[in-house]
Amino acid sequence: VNTKQLAKSVASGERSSLARAITLVENNEEEAVLLLDLLAKKTGGGFVLGVTGPPGTGKSTLVDRLISAYRAKGLKVGVVAIDPTSPISGGALLGDRIRMMSHATDQGVYIRSMASRGWSGGLARSTAQVVQLMDAAGMDVILIETAGIGQSDIEVVGIAHAVMVVFMPGMGDDIQVLKAGLMEIGDIYVVNKSDIEGADLMVINIMSLAGNTKSRAPVVLKVSALKGEGLDGLVESIEQLRAKFSEGSSGLRIRSVRGMILELAKSNILEDFKRTSESRVDKLALEVLNGKLTVNDAARRLSK
Amino acid sequence: VNTKQLAKSVASGERSSLARAITLVENNEEEAVLLLDLLAKKTGGGFVLGVTGPPGTGKSTLVDRLISAYRAKGLKVGVVAIDPTSPISGGALLGDRIRMMSHATDQGVYIRSMASRGWSGGLARSTAQVVQLMDAAGMDVILIETAGIGQSDIEVVGIAHAVMVVFMPGMGDDIQVLKAGLMEIGDIYVVNKSDIEGADLMVINIMSLAGNTKSRAPVVLKVSALKGEGLDGLVESIEQLRAKFSEGSSGLRIRSVRGMILELAKSNILEDFKRTSESRVDKLALEVLNGKLTVNDAARRLSK
Q1: Sheet with strand B77-83: strands edge to edge
Q2: What is the Cα–Cα distance from B19 to B32, expressed in whole angstroms?
Q3: What is the ipTM metric for this complex?
Q4: pLDDT digits over A35-56, tens only?
Q5: Which residues in chain A are closer than 8 Å to B154, comparing Cβ atoms?
Q6: Is A55 on the interface with B (CB under 8 A)?
Q7: For FRET with A268, which of A206, B106, B114, B240 sits at 20 to 30 Å CA-CA?
């Protein structure tokens, strides 16, 4: 298929073309970059919300509820769900996605599961590009749900306009979790499963830790996604961020563009490295084994 | 402290100096590189075994058993245990480490837990350097236990001389898990918890998948680390690999050196990028917002 034609039909919101375009991006085909450049002028309309937090806190259920809320407003919703089954962590969480998939037959919803895989940095790169495609295809709200298993989560939500971090009661005991990079990135903190004991304490913990590390005061909310409690307040908080975005707030917009540039550039650099290092590393390894170089010298040469 | 003095006392196997050296490496201090260069000639004696596999398969218990087996042979054992609590995955697995820590008072055992954190690539880099330190400090066998949560596991065990992949019965149903990069990297495959139904089927699955993807035939073994069954055969298999290593097998040695060079170089490159991109990305992001550049153009400029 002609790339220009594909760009046109993606921009017209044609679902099968969007699917094909996303596959090009996921496979990192050369054509994908051309396609994204052709679509660049069609982007900037969609509000991108990153949803992250430890596994088991109910991120998928919350995303499901947010899809419903935005569909009720007549808006188109795109979802990039990073597949927690990959690379080797097993398939335990897959069931949580089933509820979300009930939206898959809704023509105003586009859900794409993505596996984290391959060379580091590839996930944030492909997520950034899939978000651009969904944006160009006319999605008004794009939700990125991360797997909640590692540093890559932080990178992935770095490409969003705003970030919602999901916890549940009882996690406040494990200060490690709260300090692991999540207290600096949230605009909204949700204590989900708020009917479990300890929700209020969790709210207090988050307030003190998130307040300590950033000048702005993020919103902290108690929610029960499963029971539907606190959802109106959550949607309202997201809508306040989306309103800022729609008014053209350069703060929110620059954050996302900045994150995308950084992740795409990092991916370029790592791919260059992978391509060029393969042929050189064997010779360097032999020199290390022969005592002519230290491992660190060899690494310095390779990274030059 | 003088770096030369520190190198000397690490090389003499002084535990508190080894601890201090590891902290330098973990914090990525400039002094660490100098220290490692000073110690380069003392390395090459320790056999490095990577232990990976999905969470819950009993890697820590197996590592505990291997420590006992090698201590019984009078060998010194170093362990690098990548902390599965980090960055944001919660602390569920920490309890599994308690058994292993019973060795911590043994002067012939040195165990270091490491948190995966920060910029991508940092974990494999620091693991490679900690392994070099343990090697220089006279550890005969160095075990690297990964957290089993992602792509970083594959990178981390890439610095080992040989790799043991741990599964348990029932995982064969989830072919995803078996295909996620683990079938290409193992020298030994362990089906742990072999008293659970399905162990034989799991062995067959591994044999067919691991055999299909590599010319050599890796060893597949049923083990119950908890009950102590099959451990002698496992140690024997590891000893065959260690014997090859001791005979100077360039294949095993080059694999580890190659992995270390690649990970150290990648870490250098990412740190350079982090340092140099911060000052440039804001200007590029503004140009994207002003429609002068596409995000992809900006990324290409930043990665040049």
Answers
A1: B109-115, B77-83, B141-145, B47-52, B162-167, B188-191, B219-222
A2: 12
A3: 0.86
A4: 999 999 999 999 999 999 887 7
A5: 87
A6: yes
A7: B114
